[in-house]
Amino acid sequence: MGPLTKWLGGAALAGIAALALGHWWQLRREDENGRATALKGCVDQLGDEARCRSFVEERATDCGVIARHPSGPRGRTLVFVQNDFTECVVVGPKEILQRRADAAARAARGDHTDPP
Fold it and tell me: pLDDT value at position 44?
């Protein structure tokens, strides 16, 4: 292997590492901002900051996954949706997943009305 090949391989590896680090940093920023906004939204709805802080800590990981939706061509990009994250923190991830399952079942039956 010549020096140019080694240099190009190293540059490619550094580029891939930079892309991965940038993606990781973006996810971290979204999570931090999402947690702060969800805490405020939770306190606005429930009025108990201590309870909301515990909800954010307990539920942030699961809600972070639930609040990311496929977007873009072929759905390969995940977009963070703050309102979904806040709702998930307030009511809990199990409730959100149950609501989605219920909505999917209604849609499969051809029922497009909102639940009671």
Answer: 95
Q: Maximum CA pair distance of the chain?
A: 70
Model confidence at 38: pLDDT above 80: yes
Enter the DSSP assignment of 116.
-
Nearest to residue 38, comparing CAs of 114, 93, 76, 75?
93
Q: Please count the helices (runs of H) and the strands (runs of E) in the chain.
A: 4, 2
CA distances from 86 to 13, 18, 19, 115 (A): 38, 31, 28, 21
Q: What is the pLDDT of residues 40-58, one digit of tens each?
A: 999 999 999 999 999 999 9
Tell me the sheet residues that pair with 78: 70
Cβ within 8 Å of residue 81, ≥6 positions away: 67, 68, 69
